Amino acid sequence: MSVTAHAHVEDHSDDHGHHHKETFVTKYIFSEDHKMISKQYLVTGLIMGFIGIAMSILFRMQLAWPGEAFPLFEAVLGKWAPGGVMDADVYLALVTIHGTIMVFFVLTAGLSGTFSNLLIPLQIGARDMASGFMNMVSYWLFFLASVIIVISLFVESGPAAAGWTVYPPLSALPMAQPGSGLGMTLWLVAMAIFIASSLLGSLNYIVTVINLRTKGMSMTRLPLTIWALFVTAIIGVISFPVLFAAALLLIMDRSFGTSFFLSDIFIQGEVLHYQGGSPVLYEHLFWFLGHPEVYIVILPAMGIVSEIMAVNARKPIFGYRAMIASILAIAFLSTIVWGHHMFISGMNPFLGSVFTFTTLLIAIPSAVKAFNWITTLWKGNLQLNPAMLFSIGMVSTFISGGLTGIILGDSTLDINVHDTYFVVAHFHLVMGISAIYGFFAGVYHWFPKMYGRMMNKNLGYVHFWITAICSYGVFFPMHFVGMAGVPRRYYENTAFPMFDDLADVQILMTVFAIIAALVQLVFCYNFIKSMFYGKKAEQNPWQATSLEWTTPVEHIHGNWPGAIPEVHRWAYDYSKTHENGEYIIPGQDYVPQTIPLQKDEEELQH
Amino acid sequence: MTPLLTIIVLILVAIAIWQMTKIFELSQIKTDNSQIANDKDNKYNGYLMFGFLIFIYALTIFSFWKYSKVLLPEAASEHGEEYDSLMLVSFIIIFFVQTLTQGLLHYFAFKYRGEKGRKALFFADNDRLEFIWTIIPVIVLSGLILWGLYAWTNIMDINDEDDPITIELYAQQFSWTARYAGDDNVLGDANVRMIDIDNANILGIDMADPNAADDVIVREIHLPVGRKVNFKMRSQDVLHSAYMPHFRAQMNCVPGMITQFSFTPTITTAEMRQKPDVVDKVKGINKQRAERAAKGEDNTDPWEFDYILLCNKICGKSHYNMQMKIIVETEEEYNKWMAEQKSFGESMASVQ
Hints:
The complex is a heterodimer.
Chain A: H1 2-17, H2 24-29, H3 34-64, H4 71-77, H5 88-124, H6 132-151, H7 182-211, H8 224-256, E1 266-267, E2 270-271, H9 279-313, H10 320-334, H11 349-361, H12 363-377, H13 386-403, H14 405-408, H15 411-417, H16 421-451, H17 457-483, H18 503-533
Antiparallel strand pairs in A: 1-2
Chain B: H1 2-28, H2 39-67, H3 78-111, H4 127-156, E1 165-172, E2 175-180, E3 216-218, E4 221-224, E5 229-235, E6 240-244, E7 249-253, E8 259-263, H5 269-274, H6 276-294, E9 307-311, E10 323-329, H7 331-340, H8 344-351
Parallel strand pairs in B: 1-5, 4-10
Antiparallel strand pairs in B: 1-2, 2-3, 5-8, 6-7, 6-9, 9-10
């Protein structure tokens, strides 16, 4: 009987690739294979990340040495840095595009796109995504959006410069700032395409996780990566369409004279015709996506960290069900807290009370997650691979950044730190750095799966430790800048003598930022070199239990050469022993998911 | 020149690190090349984890020691006192949790670093532990939420009790204007459609409104100490935010609607200038300015402490320099200043 079943599956997998020859175009460019699409996302995300980080260095230099002339500025910014002195408009453009690229293009598409595509089919035991074609379209729409946002940098009047939240009226009126001309149009077009890409991807992830799990892979046997990526996709589907609506209405206001967000405006000597709209409406629509968006960014990192920590601690993740429950709780709460970005926007203060309440609730599942990670380390046998270091680093920055959320989420305390550098420090630690750490952890851990080779661990260690020190070096002192009352998005602080004594803090932060950016080059070097010259990977280098490590090192379309393996246990049977203290499989401290329960072994109710 | 040197130093440091890793790598070729952490890696990185914990604590202590002086002075408004207490309590909780959790995280990473033959403990869950660390945040956060909501409701309850002064803050790219409601304490109606620059009606005040004639338009806010002020915010073009950090006050200015904020100033500008931490801050900044003046740089006039209103919502090119001075003074000083101002009606009459 098993022979016929086997033959059937074999036949099915053959449909995928062996019969018709693959050309360069179908294999590397318009590929429908999830592993190739994941690599496309990764490389595109890394290139966008390079642009985003480079921009941050430019404006950090301006902040540390305001008004100073740098040949670098003139070389990169051209006419926007006459004589090497950065122009105030282009400063705003840099912070805007830095935010947009990092949040959407790197941490949404680069992180979730890469690992959803790679891990969902491999870890649930599927041959590919539910729809390979949709998956391919999703990537190419993302690519198109990336190209448009990069092109917008070269527009005569400059790229969008109204902050990454692009609040109207500033973003709606070209006379309010030059970046609100063609640059903003391109920004909106890029975002609209990006949203379409994200929706296609997310729907595909959801369908795949629900329908294509292999035999025995119940929802409570899924690795936490899959849970996180699955729930991320759901929040994306719920919230991204609302941003699409906001972008569409903004396009209408800009180009067709409607008044959804605009009213009573007098600018450059004349009254505009707009009446009856409200910028506060835009803020609601934007943050209805914008807040879930930060969880879209951080949840995949959390899933990746949970998985990598368990593998490298040689222990099951502590509180598997609590981890799932907290992911679900965070996802649910994330959709009803958006108003905490708007406490002082002019919305009804009663709403502020409601949003304070829901916002502080979200600290509870977050705290549960942090404590569970710490307990996972307790009494482990920690294999401190670079991926593990980044995972521990992620927990550290998530705690440091998350705790200050208690202040910002409290409507009262928000009054005086709103829109100051305190906010910048908070979200960079809790979602920026943490998500980037999750991303790096994932790359180091699954690089052997992606490219069949190992990354160099020593370069990985250098990368981690310098990055870890510099991240705190940049963002810890930044809290003090915010508490001193320095607003964000200021081109320079010299117009206020009361901020003079912060000059040396600014220089300190910038120096750390520059070192941190430079050390990312070590990662780039390691990544590219290992891709071609790295040591050949074994099939299961980290001795992990999950299904992706049962596939051959060489990629094949359809993932498993024979039948899809059946799953008999959850993904975290590390160091599980019989009552006599012997490992379940003698001499091996892990039990792959494909191994049936042994005699007298108990499947615990996790 | 300094920045260039700094950049060169940084590049050299980067090259040094790169070369060092290369040497490190070359020296390791003979041993183990699996690229998977071995006992030696676990040991070194375990110790580094412990070192990193010390780094975090040291950075915290250093920042407090070095940067406490840059923080805002004590709150100069009535609700600001409660704001500061809530902030202090929140910070104590945060630092307690931060010290504890970072300690555990990095100490465990150090203590349980991998060794060949060590057996990890199969510890998948424990309901009691998880209950404890769910319920503790619930209790602590409930306290913070209740206190925060109580304070918020009080701050946001803007009413006409206690005879407040009504002042309009009017925002435009890139300056502030203030309008006092005058003797009747009622602001005249206004709308951007009534702006008439040629006739000096820059705020679009309705000249037909009888409440408008006694309004007073100024470029500098004066407030009598101890008297409640109700601010009404308006913007004529894009979003702005009226941020008065010393009073723990902020509210966005939104075109098309009137937003409001209210506070009672408690410390006059003159008193604030005498506070020891303010004196220190001013002294420190003026020393820096004197040093820069000696080098022949601009913007180095000695500074005197003043309350200030800043724009705190990105509003365009000169967002970074949109400010207005606020002066808190005694009732007599305030009355004297107010008597010198021209009312809207008077200035319109003088134009026509």
